[in-house]
Amino acid sequence: MENDQLNLLIDKKIADAKLEAADKRIHYIMVIGVILPIFLAIDSRNDSREKVKDAIASINQDFQKMELDEQSYESTIDQKITEYNESQSQLMKDNSAKIDYSIIRMQNQFKELAGTQLRKPMVECYYNGRPLEGSTITFKTSEIGRSIEMRNIGDGSIKSYRVKMYTTAKTSYGIYSDEVGWSRLESNDEPTYKNCYASDDIFHNIDPKESNELSFRISVTEAQKDEFDVLLKVFYEQPEPKIFSFKIILDGTN
């Protein structure tokens, strides 16, 4: 739009200049057409004729000067148009390069953000190197405790997590650990399990392919035997907790 307006303005200037030159040509033609016959009618002497010749020569010089001025004006306008077009072309190239760079940068940022959003953590639990699901953990009075490996098998980091443990044991056994505090909860969101315990601590940071240890012990007296089902829930950056079912055997023998 700006280029069209500029071109219209330039065309108008050139037309005005040509009109001015034409007016001057008409003026001089009228001078020649009117004054020259008067000179010839008044005096046909040689000196008058010389004056007429001089006047005609002067007019011709003025015409030539006007033509040169007009050509110079048009040349100047053309040069200005060329310079403007070149500057606009370079400006458009620069702006286009900036826009392309901004688009590429935004695309890369979007890809990076989208990739980060698509990367999700996934927790898996193991006992003695095997999946915890369906396994059996045995406690004896002579042994200190057991550890469950909490491994992040996803491609996103686990920022924080907490755990709950449910049991079907008829007796409320004490669960404790030197590393983790455990509390027995009065409320239970799993009706089929009689007891519910929750870790007092919120654990942090498990990077992809890394793991943490969840240690716990159960108070077992001598000659005490029991067997019950256990449900372990791991709450982390997912809509639903990850659930693992396994069995615990208490064998109170040395």
The rough form would be described as: rod-shaped
Q: Specify the oligomeric state.
A: single chain
Number of helices in the DSSP assignment: 2
Number of strands: 12
Q: What percentage of the residues does DSSP assign to strands (E)?
A: 25-35%
Poorly predicted residue ranges: none
Radius of gyration: 50 Å
Report the CATH C-level class of the largest domain. Answer: Mainly Beta
Any idea of the CATH topology of the largest domain? Immunoglobulin-like
Helix percentage range: 40-55%
Order of helices and strands: HHEEEEEEEEEEEE
TL;DR of this structure?
This protein has 254 residues and is α+β, with helices and mostly antiparallel strands.
